[in-house]
């Protein structure tokens, strides 16, 4: 008897977990534009169309949708018609969307732009979304400066909130039908951008390296001049690529440059002190130190730069 009751209980519980929503709706998206990529403001803008195919005439989509990861959004051109017994709603969205840009590998970075759309009236017990993957796409005429559009992923991604928003029927939490569109981008002209932005720091470091070929008493000016040039280049780059909590590729290259210039400056001071003695053994030691330091610093600096750049390029 106990076994029979256990089986019946499992059947009841199983049916409650597999119970489907009352209505289903096929959802599609067509992205017209991606603009205003703003790294410092952590946002981008997008215009896109969405459509909804469903049979239940009582379902509502006008004023019932929200781009939940947007800073601001609006919709226009709402239309509704019925064809072959299926309702067909369409609307156009314009949104400024939050985007936490990962520029740690800039200019070799890849980005994912995400649009997340919720239905704000019906929960998942009432309505289930099905994606219209075959028709969902990005406008083939959409061209982005310095970016290549790799792909679009459009999928159901129901959103659960740890509140019922005051719904007297729901207890504990609430889940609403949602869809997500992920647009994958790869930056173009990366190598050209890299060398254009690092020309200043590499020229500055080369000037500092010349210090090994002048009198120790004249080296301080070259080192200080090169250091200021490298610092200036860092500020110029940060005006284009804002600093983040984690070090970017450019941060690491500048830090290595500063350390290398400091090492050259220390060597210059030691060499100056040895030359001041005018003792033959110290003069020989100073020349040997200069020669060894020039090759060591050059090789280590080039090797570290190559490692960082190749790692970022993937």
Short description:
The chain has helices at residues 2-17, 190-209, 219-240, 249-277, 280-313, and strands spanning 23-38, 43-54, 65-67, 70-83, 86-98, 110-119, 127-131, 137-138, 147-156, 159-161, 174-176, 178-187. It is of the alpha+beta class and 314 residues long.
Characterization of the model:
Mean pLDDT is 86; it is low at 1-19. 25% of the residues are buried. With 314 residues, this protein is an alpha+beta fold. The chain has helices at residues 2-17, 190-209, 219-240, 249-277, 280-313; strands at 23-38, 43-54, 65-67, 70-83, 86-98, 110-119, 127-131, 137-138, 147-156, 159-161, 174-176, 178-187. The longest helix is centred in the last third of the chain and has 34 residues, at 280-313. The strands form three sheets. Strands 1, 2, 4, 5, 7 and 8 form a six-stranded mixed beta sheet that branches.
Quickly list its features.
12 strands, alpha+beta, six-stranded mixed beta sheet, 39% helix
- Summed up, the helix count is 5
Structural class: alpha+beta
Helix share, percent:
25-40%
Rg over C-alpha atoms, rounded to the nearest angstrom: 31 Å
What does the largest sheet look like?
A: 6 strands, mixed
Shape: elongated
